[in-house]
Amino acid sequence: MAPPAREQLLKMASDTLLEAAGTIPRPEIRLAHQIGEFEPNDLTPLSISGTFDAAFDLYKRHFTTFALIVACVFIPTQVVLHAVGNLWLKPLIALANLPNPDPLVILQMLGVGFITGAPQYGVPGYLSLLTSILASGPIAVAIANVLVGRPIQVAASYRRAVPVFWRLFWLWNLILVLVLLLFVVIVTVLFLALVLVATALQLAGLNANTIGGAEVGIGVLIVMVLVPYLASCALATVLFAFAAPLVSLENLTVLGAVERNTRLISRKVFWRVSLSITLLPILTFGLQMAILASASSVVGALMWPPWCEFVISTALASVISFFFQPYWMIFITLLYFDTRIRREGLDVRCMTDNLRSLDGFLEPDLFGESREGLLVRRLAWTGNGSPAFGGASAIHTVDRPA
């Protein structure tokens, strides 16, 4: 029977977890909780706040492994960024602050700043965000193994993710180009709109100073920052919210990951995913910059020698940034699995897979069929009579209530 029109043919809901864990032989007849295997409660729909809490709890329970995964790419990058910032960017800033600076110096300063950001203040640049995207690959693989109750290892996670690094690299460049284009378009439109409003006020004989020039300036600044940010988050939600896990776990191409992402983000889950994507940078990078600013002020107040202050400030900035890096990657991956639970019944499929470890404890019914087989057969049909699992490699997804 053909599935309803609102259903889509996708990969089997458990394929992601099984591919990440590798080919696993049939387990011995032991209860899952007796051997620390996957527990069904680990895959349940979460609220937005619950996802933030679950990400922190998962980070806390596996801190060493996640920290080592990120450290492999983060520490070398931070060394390069701090070296470039102090040996190249600072002299350029000093030259740009001189009277009548050379335009070429200003262009060099902007280019180097775009690549490096300001790591001492927690402001990411192109290179730091690129390494974060690359590290999200092995992080996603590690989380997939955690969710199926299998041991996670740094080397194994990288072996799985390294073959898709180039895809993650091009994915990050595609995200950057589209977000920058959207930002430029929105800022241009807003600027033209403000010019038209200012012109209309002048024609009406009104002066901005008479209606609160300072307040108007603050409002304009907020709008010029807030509207492009919200638009960028909406674009990222539709096209790229789960692109990194999709490339790393489902082994998709960049365009395939974008297309799959648009299918996962249905109208029922769009607003919760969009709100999560919007809040994540504010909470992580905002808190990171606040802590870095406090640490920098404390270091400056202690009046250490310049070389000592530089070493301590660089070490503190690197440690604080390093602490926050794995969190947002864990959050995105958990949000990806949560969306698959809501859209594809991932928790049900993994539960039926896990039931195979209980064969010895399942009594056959009167017709010789095990309880596991009966449960799987019942789960193979949706309430409207159409098959929920389309054979060995596909699943027809039915939306759950958001």
Summarize the helices and strands and which ones pair or pack:
Layout: E1 9-11, H1 15-21, H2 48-61, H3 63-96, H4 103-116, H5 126-147, H6 154-161, H7 165-203, H8 213-239, H9 243-249, H10 254-264, H11 267-301, H12 306-344, H13 346-354, H14 371-379, E2 394-396
Antiparallel strand pairs: 1-2
Low-confidence segments, given as residue ranges, are 1-41, 357-402
Q: What's the overall geometry?
A: globular
Strand content: under 5%
Number of strands: 2
Order of helices and strands: EHHHHHHHHHHHHHHE
Widest sheet: strand ordering: 1-2
Description of the structure:
- This protein has 402 residues and is an all-alpha fold.
- The protein contains 14 helices and 2 strands; from the N terminus they run βααααααααααααααβ.
- Helix 1 crosses helix 5, helix 3 crosses helix 12 and helix 8 crosses helix 11.
- It is globular, with a radius of gyration of 26 Å.
- It starts with 8 loop residues before the first strand and ends in a 6-residue tail after the last strand.
